[in-house]
Design goal:
Blueprint lengths: L7 H37 L4 H8 L3 H7 L8 H10 L11
Organism: Clostridium thailandense
InterPro entries: Cro/C1-type_HTH
Protein name: Helix-turn-helix transcriptional regulator
Length: 95
């Protein structure tokens, strides 16, 4: 078995890449959690996507996109949805 010599700079670059990947995984998890929670709360309240659209001035398609992954809604659209559900956003430090 041969060993490959790795310089400290290559090792540092790999660590930074791993940290970057972990960061993006955290963002993806958070996005999934938010989308799932918004749709769940809306349904618990007995509201349809069209109801939210009517309250917010967004289209039903925009509301649908807010509830799906891989979309990047504007902060304004997201906040309209939150307000329509009478929700409060609370920030909490993780570490």
């Amino acid at each position: 078995m041969s060993l490959k010599r790795v310089s400290h700079s290559e090792e540092d670059m790999q660590i930074k890449e791993d940290e970057r990947n972990a960061f993006f995984m955290d963002v993806a998890r958070l996005e999934r959690e938010i989308a799932k929670n918004l749709a769940s709360i809306r349904k618990q309240e007995g509201l349809t996507q069209s109801n939210i659209a009517d309250k917010t001035g967004l289209t039903q398609q925009m509301v649908s996109r807010l509830e799906k992954l891989g979309n990047s809604p504007t902060l304004e659209s997201f906040l309209k949805y939150v307000v329509a559900l009478d929700l409060k956003i609370k920030f909490e430090k993780i570490n």
